[in-house]
Amino acid sequence: MSGVDASSDSDRxxxxxxxxxxxxxxxxxxxxxxSAGELSVGDLSTRAGCHVPNMSQHLSVLRSAGLVTSxxxxxxxxxxxxxxxxxxxYQLIQNIAR
Amino acid sequence: MSGVDASSDSDRxxxxxxxxxxxxxxxxxxxxxxSAGELSVGDLSTRAGCHVPNMSQHLSVLRSAGLVTSxxxxxxxxxxxxxxxxxxxYQLIQNIAR
DNA sequence: AGACCACTTGCGCGCTTGCGCAATCTATGA
DNA sequence: TCATAGATTGCGCAAGCGCGCAAGTGGTCT
Lengths: 98, 98
Fold this sequence. Notes:
With about 100 residues, chain A is an alpha+beta fold. Helices cover about 60% and strands about 15% of the residues of chain A. Chain A is built from 5 helices and 3 strands. In chain A, a hairpin with a 2-residue loop joins strand 2 and strand 3 (about 75-80). In chain A, helix 3 (about 40-50) packs across helix 4 (about 50-65). The longest helix of chain A has 14 residues, at about 85-95. At the A-B interface, helix 1, helix 2 and helix 5 of A face helix 1, helix 2 and helix 5 of B.
């Protein structure tokens, strides 16, 4: 438990992918917005203050990293956090940054 | 506690800086190595399998993000984790990646 | 069918990053 | 003082990222 075992290089590659997903202010904004529940791409883009295609790309990064999942209802796609630990990690980072 | 308050854009910028620091496999390797205690730049570079100048740059990124601190003893510089929460955050990311 | 809405994808452009290499700085020795 | 070891900094290049824009896809209406 809680040991810090050495990781293989390919493991670290996957961990780094999560780091990259957390490396952009707009993507962090998305995580904050989704903490209250699922939202559509359009909603997220207005809250983050960017255009829809741009938001779609950011969401693609977050989804590739496994931080969010999507659900389609009619023509609109709703995104949600895939795991509560995602929020834990973000809050930890916020605390570290003070 | 543990509320997810909306952050200002400049706050998210700082949080994202920590994300970027966690976005590289070699830097994650450094965090693993430093989990056991402080190490010199030369030691870290051999463990990460890279050249000393490259490691120095990675350490500069980690230090700018506030994840590590340095201590000079004679001509060698020792780096250590600045906060145990840094390791917590990394372990959380490892768990999320499954 | 056609028009419309929500979203995704592809392209092109700047900017940033990671890297190797050479040069430089700092401290310890002879 | 000179030489040497440890670490940092600057430079140049290839690769990657964030963005806007245009085009394409999937779904819902009349």
